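User: Please fill in residues for this 177-position structure.
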């Protein structure tokens, strides 16, 4: 059985495993310093979970909880366990339990990996919003990244997109335009 185990900042064993998965799965510019991830656990809108299967940590998930939508900031299955349907199962769990809009960022479709990732999310009913979206840098040592926003229900209007972008920029990245 697959479980999402919400973590606290003192869950050292889980956090050590999550850190390895996180740093292996996401490029330098697309992730926080892990100590900053741990610090975010104190924010009630932020949830960091270990994905476990048969009592083993097989992945990680970080989600932000906002009034009108949830934002999947990072979602990864350890490369050793990929291809076994675990990620699909977790995403189905999230979709079943969440009635609000689900939003995430994806890299531009410039290589086989990014194309595969986009197709994965499209298979679960996510849509690409083709409005220009720049992921602000996580800190002064990192660069901004041009990405797409994907959402479970299509983003209905430019003003809806702008609200999502503004919320992510301010609340997730601390970036004020």
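Assistant: Residues filled in for all 177 positions:
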């Amino acid at each position: 059985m697959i479980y999402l185990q919400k973590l606290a900042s003192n869950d050292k064993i889980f956090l050590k495993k999550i850190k390895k998965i996180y740093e292996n799965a996401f490029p330098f510019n697309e992730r926080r310093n892990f100590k900053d991830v741990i610090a975010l656990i104190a924010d009630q809108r932020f949830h960091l979970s270990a994905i476990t299967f048969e009592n083993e940590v097989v992945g990680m998930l970080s989600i932000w909880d906002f009034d009108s939508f949830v934002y999947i900031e990072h979602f990864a299955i350890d490369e050793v366990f990929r291809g076994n349907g675990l990620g699909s199962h977790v995403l189905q769990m999230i979709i079943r339990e969440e009635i609000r809009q689900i939003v995430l960022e994806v890299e531009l479709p410039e290589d086989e990996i990014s194309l595969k990732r986009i197709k994965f999310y499209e298979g679960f009913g996510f849509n690409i919003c083709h409005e220009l979206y720049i992921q602000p840098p996580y800190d002064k040592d990192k660069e901004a990244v041009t990405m797409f926003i994907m959402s479970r229900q299509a983003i209905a209007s430019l003003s809806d997109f702008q609200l999502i972008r503004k919320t992510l920029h301010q609340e997730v990245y601390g970036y004020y335009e």
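For context: The mean pLDDT is 96.
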